[in-house]
Amino acid sequence: MKIGYPCVNEAMDCSAANTFRLASYADERLVAAVTANLACLRRMLAWNVAQGLLFFRMGSGIVPFGSHPINTFPWQTHFAADFQVIGDYIKANNLRVSFHPDQFVVLNSPSVDIVQRSIQELIYQGSMLDLMGLDGTAKLQIHVGGLYGDRELALSRFAAVHATLPAAVKARVVVENDDRLFPLRDCLRLHAETGVPILFDNFHHECLNHGEPMAEALRLAAATWHPTADGVPMMDYSSQALGERKGKHADDLVDDQFRRFLQEFHGLDMDLMLEIKNKEASALRAVTILRELGLSVPAPNIPSPPLSLPPDPNAPPKVRRAKKAVSSE
DNA sequence: CGGGGTCAAGGGACA
DNA sequence: TGTCCCTTGACCCCG
User: Fold this and answer.
1) What is the model's pTM?
2) Positions of the region Disordered (predicted)?
């Protein structure tokens, strides 16, 4: 069981999400942003390895406008070596990685244009994993999409579009149960029809379900992953922010709640992405709890890293500006 | 120089 | 049909 967190490490002084406005697009800016993003990504991965966090969701914005027609720069070849170095590091340290294309990727949209742009975005994010030399266990996590007033039609459109995805993308796409529209049961139907693995989200399941007990839901979702082609099933873990709107993620990991949740596994192995607001802090806490419980978590730094990465004095200048002004100086 | 409006992109709830 | 929400960081304009 690997533990991870999404995209942002709040303890680090770099960002892998440097970008700029479409209106100010220029190849020079693109190169600068990607260079900074990849350098920061390397540092974050090395930080994670040192902390025993072996699962990580990379941000969608590594290449700004990565699937936008304005971006005609051959970043795939220009940064090929950089992606490969990162991929080698991931493999050498037994890391698990993924992307989560955001809400604009809607495969079941009735709009052909939106579907096409969505596929382009999947191709962009999948190609980064390809350039890293990672196999099909590195995933692209998406939602089913919209309801459009007809659940059956919405599901069948997803299946139809899924069938047309390029093989390289299809091998990586996994579908997540969501909290308002498509619960686990719908995802299971899609799996039966298309073979798409289900990335289970416990919090979404709590918000929307058909009465499946948590342990059963975990088992059902995990069974949709092919042990070798897809790897250990991934899941998202989070919990309700108390006193907030239903569906809002908690700010902190609640220890007892997490311990209780772990009891639902009954020996099942999954890689856990902690979607908690305070990011790596909660992920570290989760690792501590797993160790206290004697659950198998790979110890940090078992394989010696092929690169001596962090801190990287040769990292490009930080494009990011200081977080908070210090009152005096 | 810092605060805050805005940013490629979708869709649903609600009035 | 229009407004607000999700969810979030970061850009960058403007006072």
Assistant:
1) 0.91
2) 298-329
Mean pLDDT of chain A: 89
Are A37 and A29 a contacting pair, CB within 8 Å? no
Q: Does residue A327 form part of some domain?
A: no
Specify if A312 maps to a domain.
Answer: no
A134: containing domain:
3-292
Task: Identify the CATH number of the domain in which residue A115 sits.
Answer: 3.20.20.150
A 170-229, residues with C-beta < 7 Å of strand C? 179
- Residue A317 CA to residue A312 CA, distance in Å, equals 11
- For the stretch A183-196, pLDDT in tens is 999 999 999 999 99
Tokens of A271: 């890689």
Provide the domain count of chain A.
Answer: 1
CA at A48, C1' at B1: how many angstroms apart? 35
Residue A325 included in any domain: no
Asked if pLDDT for residue A302 goes beyond 60, the answer is no
Q: Check if the beta carbon of residue A57 is closer than 8 Å to that of residue A97.
A: yes
**CA at A317, C1' at B2: how many angstroms apart?**
22
Q: Which residue is nearest to nucleotide C11 (CA to C1')?
A: A20
In a domain, A329, yes or no: no
| Tokens (6 digits) for A99 | 């992307």
- Is the pLDDT at A324 greater than 90? The verdict is no
Q: Residue A320 pLDDT more than 70?
A: no
